[in-house]
Predict the 3D structure of the following.
Amino acid sequence: MTDIIQQAQAIIQKGGIIAYPTEAVYGLGCDPFNEIAIERLLQLKGRPRSKGLIIIGAHWQQLEPLTQAIPQERLATIMASWPGPHTWIFPASEKVPAWISGEFDSIALRVTAHPIARALCENAPLVSTSANPLNQTPACNTVTLKTYFPQGIDLVIAGLLGDSVQPTTIRHAITGDVVRA
């Protein structure tokens, strides 16, 4: 597995797009700081730039520079949910590019527990968006993934999905309110 992770990381560094298993569905990923890669990914999905994207990391220290400070008791609640299938929306720092935040002044973040996704972002955070065209059901296997995207993905990493039955719940980091169930 190490060889394919290294291959994927090299593709990401060169602006490529990969598909990989996550906690619930297959995800599409690329370098969040490469605007050309992001535009390519958004076109592939038919997703508007205004919606913003989720960033995953292997640990909080990778993601913290992308956020503004929040109350310590809220941060403790978030840390207790990670690593795991919980995405939180934080106020974005000035380091977050508009192609990630979309029309928002916030950023969606998750410290993933999925072993493949975690290995992929061990060296750098990664975009994580469900592998599906706009308004289609997310791909839960490589057959559906390749049907949706017969071209445009530079590498598909096959693997088992996590135990979640739907994409991660998204909550607001300060209020705890559910944004997406």
In short: The chain has a mean pLDDT of 95.
